[in-house]
Amino acid sequence: MEVISLGSEQVLDIESNEAGLEREGGVVELDGQSYKSLERDGLSELDGENAACQPRKEFVAPAVGMEFESYDDVYNYYNCYAKEAGFCVRVKNSWFKRNSKEKYGAVLCCSSQGFKRIKDVNRLRKETRTGCPAMIRMRLVDSKRWRIVEVTLDHNHLLGSRVHKSVKRLTNCTKRKLNSNSDAEVRTIKLYHALVVDAGGDGSCNVIGREARTQSSKPDQLCLKKGDSQSVYNYFCRMQMSNSNFFHSVDFNVDGLLRNVFWADARSRAACGYFGDVVRFDSTYLSSKYETPLVTFVGLNHHGQSVLLGCGLLSNETTESYVWIFKTWAACMNGHTPQTIITDRCLCLQTAISQVFPRSHHRFGLFDIMRRVPEKLGGLRNYDAIRKALFKAVYETLKVGEFEGAWGFMVHHFGVADNEWLQSLYKDRVLWAPVCLKDTFFAGIAAASQGDNISPFFDKYVHKQTPLKEFLDKYEFAVQKKHKEESLADIESRNWTPILKSRCSFELQVSKAYTKEMFNKFQFEVEEMYSCFSTMQLHVNGPITIFLVKERILVEGNRREIRDFEAQFVCA
């Protein structure tokens, strides 16, 4: 099997032409160019009497990117290929549009796929299923053609050469088409942008090195199960066909085995230019030992919604792996350096970020820290009182001195000064405590107040035991759902007329510039401004002027209480 280069892309020449098996007049389209047909005369004739395929020449193996005029064409083509290869075909899954009977996707598989149901095991019929992985997945694309989007060619059983029942399902219409000698009725297989990352001489995918058949025990090797590498390869192929600005990179260890993977589509790369000032690097699935060791780069868009800026799969939580993925992400984003990077508390992450993004402000996610309180302190005596004191120190103090005083009271009053987790938290307080981060720009990503919840981007789509292959199937659905939510918010903001709640000129000005969600947050602050009164200047220190402001704040019991606050005004 050859890999040929067309322009800046590589495409797979599915079959060499040494045998001269082209059908006269057939063409294949690649990147808008026409080449001699990759279609062979293997689009078999049918014997009208027994409805069996009569192959004339070696048949083209299915490949990601092949397109057909109809579902029947794909089905019949795969049946003909199956007959020549020596296996049967059955329909594993079909998908139909909700409000109609129109089919938009299907999976055809080897008849030996899966296993018998338990209730059928005792029947006299001999067991023929072996859990065979061979299959093709197809879907209806925007051009109203059927495209093969995933292919597995390998079988786990011996192949025969007998006539198969699946071939007998060919329709009479198709028999007439395939029997016709007219070139106008010859089906042409078209491969649109069938980009191949790397193909071995036997046609098997080597894009991510040798496939790990079982869970790896090596710390520098990505744990892959059988079929995972094929799933990643198929996903990359699909994205390269439909997304010209799709980026991906793979990292191998010294043995040539896959260690790390990164990818980002065109939308993520474009979004980084708008929403990449503050980036949250989420390694929750990796650190929590999920079956899919996923890490994500996430920003916040103009509606306050999470936006994906890239994804990765890492084999371990070492500085080396983090350095690799940060450098790869930066290269993908044309050298972009975030103003602020938010991560979990991890020494390896700290080291990696200091190396790759030395000018960025690295901060720890407050939500990640506070959600570990039950795990780290739950076994202590007086846990409820300790938790309440901790939350008060974190969320209710406004000055560094107040925070340190409240923290000192907590650890000495409850006798937890020797607790290692609390000691390490206090040592790193300038990286996570809200009172220490007033000069850090977070763009709304950080959980600054009690009750704020920062959910993972793929929340509800990835669970502890979600396999990699299932995640890749859910990935596109999750991303498309987020895109739809953003589009709906765009439409709502364009058609929305704000109601002003003050006579301030800046409220009118901002209402014309902000989206609905952002304006509502701004307007809340405008309303709260009317709770402030008795403003008095305390003193001036160079460009900084300090004022004393009284405010009626809402407290427990839905009542207002007057408190004094100091506000700093910095003259530029």
Give a structural overview.
The protein is 30% helix and 23% strand. It has 572 residues and is α+β, with helices and mostly antiparallel strands. Among the domains are: 66-116 and 127-152, no CATH class; 228-359, no CATH class; 505-570, no CATH class. The strands form six sheets. Strands 13-14-17-16-15-18-19 form a seven-stranded mixed beta sheet. A hairpin with a 5-residue loop joins β10 and β11 (146-152). α6 (319-332) runs parallel beside α7 (347-356) and α10 (383-395) runs antiparallel to α11 (400-413). It starts with a strand and ends with a strand. Residues 1-58, 161-170 and 174-216 have low confidence and may be disordered.
Radius of gyration from the CA trace? 31 Å
Show unreliable segments: 1-58, 161-170, 174-216
Structural class: alpha+beta
What characteristic shape results from the CA principal axes?
elongated
Strand order of the largest sheet: 13-14-17-16-15-18-19
Largest sheet: 7 strands, mixed
Cα end-to-end separation: 67 Å
Structure annotation, total helices = 15
Task: Provide mean pLDDT, rounded.
Answer: 78
The helicity comes to: 25-40%
Strand runs, count: 22
DSSP strand content: 15-25%
Domain FAR1: 76-159
GO molecular function, one term: zinc ion binding
Keywords: Metal-binding, Nucleus, Zinc, Zinc-finger
InterPro entries: FAR1_DNA_bnd_dom, FHY3/FAR1, MULE_transposase_dom
